[in-house]
Amino acid sequence: MSRILCISRHSPYQTSSACDALDAVLAAGAFDQEVSLLLMNEGVWQAIKNQQASLLGRTGIGKKMAALPLFGVKQVYIHTPSLTQRGLTRDSLHLDAVQLVTNNEVRTLIQQHDQLLSF
Amino acid sequence: MPMKFTVVILGAPEGSLSSRSALEFCHALLEQNHQIERLFFYADGVHNASSLIAPPQDEADLPASWSQLINEYKLDAVVCIAAALKRGILDHNEQTRYEKNAANLGACFSLSGLGQLIAASSVSDRTITFGS
Hints:
The structure holds two protein chains of two kinds.
Chain A: E1 3-8, H1 17-30, E2 34-39, H2 62-67, E3 75-79, H3 80-85, E4 98-101, H4 103-112, E5 115-118
Parallel strand pairs in A: 1-2, 1-5, 2-3, 3-4
Chain B: E1 4-9, H1 18-31, E2 35-41, H2 62-73, E3 77-80, H3 81-86, H4 92-97, E4 110-112, H5 115-122, E5 126-130
Parallel strand pairs in B: 1-2, 1-5, 2-3, 3-4
């Protein structure tokens, strides 16, 4: 078993990147790997509540995110400076079980994991 | 000290430098006697496995260069099946299953699931992603 950190840095609907990243995370969970997800840069928009993806003709990303714990995904981390830069706070997020992390903590996270999946 | 790599390619041959950078990275790895556990083509990267791409003669043919590399070093090259089907990259099985009029997956590639990425990654020293 390896510890995998997936870093997802794109907004939820502009490209398929956010969805592709979540699929990879779910697959890692399904294969019993110790996997965590870190949202940073535009990726923090994935965790915003009250999304209405159906207006864009897309499936909301919320369902997949809600499935993360069921697939054994250990932790969702959110990069605090990325939130702040976009005028967002913890109250803007739809996930309760997230951990906000600083730049230094991101560095530590990367060191603590065996593999990085970067999206 | 030789290391084992999993390389993930997210970019199509056209439109970004991602695929080319990944290809050159793989050449550099192999020339320095590192091992490639698996190439994993995901998202728009699946287009690199199309055998129907026909660039102008004075431009690089990245799908052909990937095939050459894969054959030369007998690499394991997996294309994400879900990403491939939505982008019209099919092997003969999928052509039959979905009743399409052609199959275009290059001979040295195989279609499989994301589990193949996770499995390769878990036995590699490094997983390197080339973005879209």
